[in-house]
Design goal:
Blueprint (H helix, E strand, L loop, with lengths): L2 E7 L3 H12 L5 E3 L13 E2 L9 E2 H14 L3 E3 L3 E5 L5 E5 L3 E10 L3 E3 L5 H5 L5 E2 L2 H4 L7 E5 L3 H11 L4 E6 L8 H8 L4 E5 L1 E7 L6 E6 L7 E6 L2 E4 L3 E3 L30 E3 L11 H21 L1
Helix pairs in contact: 1-2, 1-7, 5-6
The chain binds NADPH dihydro-nicotinamide-adenine-dinucleotide phosphate.
Length: about 300
């Protein structure tokens, strides 16, 4: 069985930053890219708040920069998904693609988080036929059409603004009477004429013959003036947050009630020596590219220290 000094699982800002540091520390890192190479940022349009890019940068370009920097320091980047782990004995074992198992002296978990869905049966029925959780991936199909974005956070605002450049009309379906997003994003939404924010609306279901044709919403659910509203839409985009990709680690590591991996305060150390968690999978609070990158850096430094003591 192959034994790896520093195994990194995931290829977002946390994983690649860990790889850059581990590579420069001669740990010969091996990085498995996971389900979505490049992580969540490749589904983003413009990243404006990552230091070093004063004009902003496309998410794909930034992740390609991360990747090339990791390659420059000798990271062995492989496609593959970690499908199971065994942290009960050392070196630790990680199963890849349900096909093979590698042994690792240190493991950096940077598996990130995935988009959440509302849980309506209609989301499955219209998957690929109008329902999407990624405006930048699928927005192109909705040129001159009518779409809705669910959610009131920064992601929802960003997706709505992106879609407003393609679609004829964009609804935002927001369950509260206000947006949770930062002020700058709110202002952009309110200043975009073809975005209409439907406050205090929730989605009951979707309809359409073969492809999506509309959504049934409820306004002010549970109030005396509760009303049912139908909107005609061709696209329904979820932007209601993410859940951490931590399931395979749960038999060995502690997580909070949502599933974020618990680490020791101010470090990426988990309760298992030599296993570290970095980025969104372990961060219920900040979930930013820059904070993920920083925790990837810390994880690689800790991996190096751990290997020195072994
Ligand atoms: P958030 O958790 O911030 O927002 C989720 C939104 O979805 C909220 O409006 C929430 O409503 C709504 N929601 C959640 N569940 C449901 C549901 N079942 N039905 C209807 N609505 C629902 O997630 P984001 O993905 O927007 O952002 C995550 C983090 O990433 C944040 O810290 C954000 O600031 C950051 N981010 C930063 C960006 C940037 O700086 N460029 C871009 C994108 C994200 P409610 O408010 O009622 O809970």
């Amino acid at each position: 069985m192959e034994t790896i000094d520093c195994l990194i699982i995931g290829s977002g800002p946390a994983g690649f930053t860990a790889a850059i540091y581990a590579g420069r520390a001669n740990l010969s890192p091996v990085l498995y890219e996971g389900i979505q190479p490049g992580g969540q940022l490749i589904t983003t349009t413009e990243i404006e708040n990552f230091p070093g890019y004063p004009e902003g940068v496309d998410g794909n370009i930034m992740m390609d920069d991360f990747r090339r920097q990791a390659l420059r320091f000798g990271t062995d980047i492989r496609s593959g998904i970690a499908t199971a782990v065994d942290f009960s004995s050392y070196p630790y074992k990680v199963e890849i693609d349900k096909e093979k198992t590698v042994a690792a002296k240190t493991v950096i978990i940077s598996t990130g988080a995935s988009a959440k869905y509302l849980g309506l049966p209609d989301e499955k029925k219209y998957a690929g036929k109008g329902v999407s959780a990624c405006a930048t991936c699928d927005g192109f199909f909705y040129r001159k059409k009518r779409v809705a974005v669910v959610g009131g956070g920064d992601t929802a605002c960003e997706e709505a603004i992106f879609l407003s450049g393609l679609a004829e009309k964009v609804y935002m379906i927001v369950r509260k009477p206000f947006l949770r997003a930062t002020k700058i994003m709110q202002e952009r939404v309110f200043n975009t004429p073809n975005i209409e924010v439907l406050f205090e609306h929730q989605t009951l279901g979707l309809f359409g013959e073969e492809f999506l044709e509309g959504a049934t919403l409820v306004k002010r659910k549970g109030e005396i003036d509760e009303t049912e509203v139908k909107i005609a839409i061709d696209g329904f985009f979820l932007a209601i947050g993410h859940h951490p990709n931590s399931d395979i680690f749960k038999p060995y590591l502690e997580t909070d009630e949502i599933g974020y991996i618990k680490t020791l305060p101010d470090t990426p150390k988990t309760k298992i020596a030599g296993v570290f968690a970095a980025g969104d999978v372990a961060d219920p609070n900040y979930r930013q590219a820059i904070t993920a990158a920083a925790s990837g850096c810390k994880a690689a430094i800790e991996a190096e220290r751990f290997l020195k003591t072994k």
